[in-house]
Design a protein that fits this description.
The complex is a heterodimer of chains A (121) and B (199). Chain A has a domain of 63 residues. Helices cover 68% and strands 0% of the residues of chain A. In chain B, helix 3 runs antiparallel to helix 4, helix 3 runs antiparallel to helix 7 and helix 6 runs antiparallel to helix 7. Chain B is mainly alpha-helical. The chains are: A mainly alpha (121), B mainly alpha (199).
């Protein structure tokens, strides 16, 4: 960590607490709204992570080499996701089984998408 | 005690311990990042995972989020105290952090036991099979279990380092414990909405 900077940790902590309350209250108040859940839960999670990394871990003041490492690992992670995404999202093929309980299955009907979910044995 | 030869890497100007710790964190990003991304891929493709996720306790997850965020604050105060060579304060706040870790594990144990009791119930596990025997719960136990192991590892490291700073030794290691602990906190910041909010 580079020296020569002062951080008000209490202020950062209370900022995190306010964001935390919003991230829980938003989805509780609007459970049907996917937009609210995405913004309040996941959007704020990203903001909280940036605050913790930036100020508690002092990454905002860290040397560039650390950032090179982070960028490399995130790039590798991106490659990994691209590589496995076709397989993970696939719902066809040998040994593939649906895990949808029969009760939920009957509620969802038998449209084309649901038919795919059963796969082929 | 004699200082190690390679205390600071001349090429980067970064303390050796900090550099090593960041290597750990960078490799952990791939582990937990891969885990989280796989979950997202499954979750986006399978809407019914939202039904499976209904069994997780949002209040318990929220309590643990509060506890870990607070513990991160204690860890950074311990680091600040160590920078000022205040061994007593660093020791005290390291133990506040360890206490928070313990509360986190107690809440997690409660969550696990409230689910696993159905596996050994008198109905031969029928309720378990109906509500918990699915891929979502497999992911839940694996991700939170792996994270819990990291929490335990952080607590053990802090117990060892706290004794050293109490004796006025190795103040720089408080920063290393803090960096690791903040990373563990960040992982939970992402696991919480994934497993407890998105239902």
């Amino acid at each position: 960590m580079s020296e020569g900077h002062q951080t008000n940790y209490a202020k950062i902590y209370w900022t995190l607490m306010i964001l935390f309350i919003i991230s829980v209250a938003g989805p509780e108040m609007f459970p049907e709204s996917k937009a609210v859940i995405l913004i309040t839960a996941f959007g704020i999670a990203v903001v909280k992570a940036i605050i913790v990394a930036g100020w508690f871990m002092h990454l905002a003041h860290e040397k560039k080499y650390i950032w090179y490492g982070f960028i490399t690992s995130l790039a590798l992670l991106f490659l990994f996701v691209i590589a496995v995404a076709p397989d993970v999202t696939m719902t066809k093929g040998h040994n593939w089984q649906s895990q949808i309980p029969s009760t939920m299955d009957s509620h969802e009907g038998h449209d084309e998408t649901n038919h795919d979910d059963h796969g082929h044995h | 005690m004699e200082s190690p030869v390679a205390t600071t890497r001349s090429a980067t100007g970064i303390n050796t311990g900090v550099l090593a710790l960041y290597w750990v964190i960078i490799s952990e990003i791939v582990i937990f990042g891969g885990l989280i991304m796989c979950y997202l891929l499954f979750r986006l493709r399978n809407d019914h995972w939202g039904e499976f996720a209904a069994v997780t306790s949002t209040p318990a997850g929220a309590l643990n989020t509060f506890v870990l965020l607070t513990s991160s604050y204690f860890a950074v105060i311990a680091h600040d105290a160590a920078t000022k060579k205040d061994g007593d304060k660093a020791f005290r706040f390291l133990w506040y952090t360890i206490g928070c870790g313990l509360i986190f594990l107690i809440v997690k144990s409660y969550e696990y036991s409230s689910k696993l009791k159905y596996l050994f119930a008198d109905d031969g596990g029928a309720y378990w099979d109906a509500h918990y025997n699915n891929n979502f719960m497999g992911y839940y136990f694996f991700a939170t279990g792996l994270h819990g192991l990291h929490v335990i590892a952080g607590m053990v490291a802090m117990i060892i380092v706290s004794k050293q700073v109490k004796r006025g030794q190795n103040f720089n290691r408080v920063e290393l414990c803090g960096l690791y602990w903040h990373f563990v906190d960040i992982v939970w910041i992402f696991l919480f909405p994934l497993l407890y909010i998105a239902k």
